[in-house]
Write a structure and sequence with these properties.
Number of helices: 3
Shape: elongated
Order of helices and strands: EEEEEEHHH
Strand order of the largest sheet: 1-2
Helix content: 25-40%
Oligomer: single chain
Radius of gyration: 23 Å
Number of strands: 6
Largest sheet: 2 strands, antiparallel
Length: 154
């Protein structure tokens, strides 16, 4: 059920527009990261469920440039994190288009326990795992830098 204090996207003209100036319902989640601080006041735009019109939360107004900058930053972040989470090779290797577990580069750690520590097989596998750990660690460090930059630029 829609109330008069919600923004709606009309099905045929796709133009969002305020029905009236809403007052935030603090019982639902919402907010916006503005200038590196999570804002929970002055939340003017309700986010509604398109199926039933239920208010899911409220957000602060943003300019198209704010939204575009945030999206670019989030894309940079996922381009760093996703390869570390879902691949075993570098950026110039082809990964199969198959469902893989999270952190597949560390999956061989289970095999290490069953090997004799002074064998070549153990040493090669340990080296491979250390490289994978370093690749993931590097991605985490890079993603932290990008995330901090996003927080500061908001």
């Amino acid at each position: 059920m829609r109330t008069p204090d919600q923004w709606v996207v009309r099905e045929f003209n796709n133009e969002p527009g305020p029905v009236s100036d809403p007052v935030a319902d603090l019982s639902v989640p919402g907010g916006a990261l503005i200038n590196g601080v999570w804002q929970r006041h002055d939340l003017r735009l309700p986010v509604t469920d398109p199926e039933d019109g239920r208010v899911l939360g409220y957000v602060a107004e943003s300019t198209p440039a704010d939204v575009a900058a945030r999206n670019e930053g989030l894309k940079r972040l996922t381009r760093i994190v996703n390869p570390a989470l879902f691949t075993t090779d570098g950026p110039y290797e082809i990964d199969p288009a198959l469902q893989s577990p999270v952190l597949p580069g560390l999956a061989a750690a289970k095999q290490l326990a069953g090997l004799q520590p002074r064998t070549n097989e153990y040493g090669f596998l340990l080296t491979k795992l250390v490289r994978q750990r370093n690749r993931i660690h590097d991605a985490l460090l890079q993603s932290c830098d990008v995330a901090e930059g996003l927080a500061k630029s908001s």
